[in-house]
Amino acid sequence: MAALADECNRAVKATVALHPVSAKKVEVEELPSKPPTSANTPIQNRLKSKIADLTLKIKKLQDFVSTGFAKNDQKRELHHDKLKLKELTQKLNRAENLRKAQQKLRDKKKLEAPQTLPKPKRDRPPIEKEQEGLQEAILNLVYYGASADDRRRSEILKCAKTVNELLTGLKNQSK
Length: 175
What we know:
The chain contains six helices and two strands. The model has no long low-confidence stretch (mean pLDDT about 75). It has a two-stranded antiparallel ribbon with strand order 1-2. It folds into two domains: about 1-115, no CATH class; about 125-175, no CATH class. The protein has helices spanning about 1-20, 40-65, 70-115, 125-130, 135-145, 165-175, and strands at about 145, 160. α1 runs parallel beside α2. By secondary structure, it is mostly helical.
């Protein structure tokens, strides 16, 4: 890529040296010598190489047109090549902006990920994890000796058993 740009610059300088009066100077954007190190970007690389080839072709056509020996076909080709160059640079800018936006989104997700995960605690783990059937067993024992609200306005059950009776019931179920 850099070699193409250097070759293109040498060709323009040689043409300007041959035709100092008739040659027009063209400003050329410097292409980066290498793609970003963080990402492999084959689409951008392909577009950059096409742009470099097209700029070389445009420079040669401009030099030929500036000598005055160019035909209408070559002038039309120069015009079409300039339009294509503009289109390719727009595609390259779009591809680079998309790459940057995607990288920004990935970085944002990396920052959000630790916040969404539950943090491990240093305390004892909850009893539901150690003894999964404990809650069901307690409810079964409570329901057996429970009575409903007198007016049945709520779903609260009144347990007729004491805590000691519940503990003995749990011990009997575990055996």
